[in-house]
Amino acid sequence: MANLFLISDHHFGHRPIIDFESRPFASAEEMTETMIARWNAAVGKDDHVFHLGDFSFLNKEKTSAIVERLNGRKTLIMGNHDRGRSRSWWLDAGFGEVSEHPIVYGGFFFLSHEPMYINKHMPYVNVHGHIHGQKYEGTQYINVCVEHWDYTPVSFEEIKRMVVPNEEQ
After folding, report:
1. Which long-range contacts (CB under 8 A, 24 or more apart) does 23-30 make?
2. Sheet of 154-155, strands arranged across
């Protein structure tokens, strides 16, 4: 049975992000190789990954080479740095599905790049990226930026445990 994973904000090829977010890499190349290795250590060939945006700053050829090396079926929810390129550009780069808008998953989880406003009285959870090392309080917002997850996709099972920690899944 395939597993589901979520992650965001790899910023492949973006050297300045190392300094902006105090990432523990000496170069963009080291960052790329480490993040590919960590992705493939967690994600199997038949698993599904929602990437919640800001995937790559590289050209299509280099981006496609990275996508091809990553395990799993990949869906991109476009982030602010992805939107300068068309949906078809990302499909051509190797993503199986690409959405320009947030996706509702399981009728309960809003998957988006930027955090969305969720009324505290509503029973929804926003799984998002965009804010890198920052984090919102409470269980209605789960930041899946690479900085929070040791540069490794997080399983949907782990996300569900964060929302309902004491219930049987």
Report:
1. 23/147
2. 97-99, 73-77, 48-51, 4-7, 154-155
pLDDT higher at 165 or 31:
31
Which domains, and CATH codes, for the chain?
4-163 (3.60.21.10)
pLDDT at position 164, please?
Answer: 74
Q: Between the CA of residue 68 and those of 30, 124, 125, 152, 168, what are the distances in Å?
A: 18, 33, 31, 17, 36
The residue count for the chain:
169
Report the SS3 class of residue 97: strand
The torsion of the CA quartet 37, 44, 85, 80, rounded to 10 degrees, works out to: -80
Give tens-digit pLDDT for 88-146: 999 999 999 999 999 999 989 999 999 999 888 888 999 999 999 888 877 899 999 99
* Residue pair 14/146 in contact by the 8 Å Cβ criterion: no
E strand or H helix at 38: helix 28-42
On the CB side of 159, CA atoms within 13 Å amount to: 26
Which pLDDT score, from 0 to 100, does residue 167 have? 52
Cα separation, 156 vs 112, in Å, equals: 15
Residue 25 phi/psi, 5-degree rounding, is -125, 145
